[in-house]
Amino acid sequence: MYVSMKKMLNKANYGNYAIMAINCFNLESAYATITAAEELHAPIIIDLLMEHLQKHIPKEYVLPPVIKMAKDASVDVAINLDHGKSESYVRDSILDGFSSVMMDASEHSFEENIQITNEIVKLASKFNTSVEAEIGNMGAVAGDHFTQADMYTDPEKAIEFMERTDVTALAISFGSSHGIMPKDFVPVFDFNIIKKIKAGTHKPLVLHGGSGCGKDNIQKAIKCGINKVNVGSDVMKAQADSIFRSQQGNRDMEYVDLMNKTLDPAKEVVKYYIELSGSTNKAE
Questions:
Q1: 224 contacts 198 by C-beta, under 8 angstroms
Q2: Dihedral over Cα of 84, 89, 90, 94: its sign
Q3: Residue among 158, 222, 145, 230 nearest 189 (CA)
Q4: 181: DSSP letter
């Protein structure tokens, strides 16, 4: 069933577990993600990153078939625009049929972030579209631009932000970074940030950059109040590794078979994170 994030995240918030949001780049990864969720009877969020949609295949070609998958699914599926940096792009995405959007105005001033977010919430409410926002900043593994402590979310600012906006969920920064973590590297999380914001808002909170953060970090973050965990790099790496192995074994393999072999590895990673999040058998 195609739904917004609101109901599933509110339920996760009440039940102290998290919903997995998987960054999908193509139809194969979206199909694998939804199938994995169905097999574990778990609600799921498909994240479509604005940057991917702008640089690769435009959303008007990607979104309709993924919506079809969501509508046909036996579990609740939300499709969320991930890191929407442009207000106009986020507005268009609501009109185009996304059930959820992230208005990421975190690079703006605090007051501008509130103003921009409220404008999006106002429009989204007319379409029953849920809205995620972000306070603080996220770094990236690429170029060793990891998230630093001065980029972490200020709990007081986060609480004020949620009091002055009606967002469904808030992404916060407390130690994770986007990208594939180096071998044997596990980031250090500041769990007190989550606890303080949760205590002051009692609303769904989001962990971005979940790939490679480690089982203990993720489970403790959920226990402290995280209700949505974004993972993309680990799933895409599983697909890339599958292609590499297939090419090593048979360089003449047809492309359609090559892509088909990426489905099971992707599903296994998605299932791992669903079980880690505590959302198994939590579907309506």
A1: yes
A2: negative
A3: 222
A4: P
Length of the chain: 284
Q: Please state, in angstroms and rounded to a whole number, the distance separating the CA atoms of residues 223 and 97.
A: 33
pTM for the whole structure: 0.94
Active site residues: 82
Q: Is 7 helix (H, G, I), strand (E, B) or coil?
A: helix
Residue 104 in marked binding region: yes
Specify the higher pLDDT residue, 81 or 186: 81
Confidence (pLDDT) at 263: 94
Give the CA-trace dihedral at 170, 277, 67, 11, to 10 degrees: -60
Q: Average pLDDT in the 116-121 region? A: 98
Q: Which two tokens stand for residue 167?
A: 């967002």
How far is it, in rounded angstroms, from Cα 43 to Cα 79? Answer: 11
Q: Is 102 helix (H, G, I), strand (E, B) or coil?
A: strand
CB atoms within 10 A of CB 163: 11
CATH topology for 5-233+273-277 is: TIM Barrel (3.20.20)
Give the pLDDT score at 141: 58
**What is the Cα 236 distance to its own chain's centre?**
14
CA distance 20 to 82: 13
Kindly indicate the confidence band of residue 137, based on its pLDDT and cuts at 50, 70 and 90.
Answer: confident
Contacts of 263 (CB under 8 A, 6+ apart): 28, 31, 32, 35
Q: Is 83 a known ligand-binding residue? A: yes
With a cut of 70, say whether residue 30 has pLDDT above it. yes
DSSP-derived 3-state class of residue 246: helix
Q: So what's the pLDDT on residue 144?
A: 63
Question: Residue 31 is encoded by which pair of tokens?
Answer: 């199909």
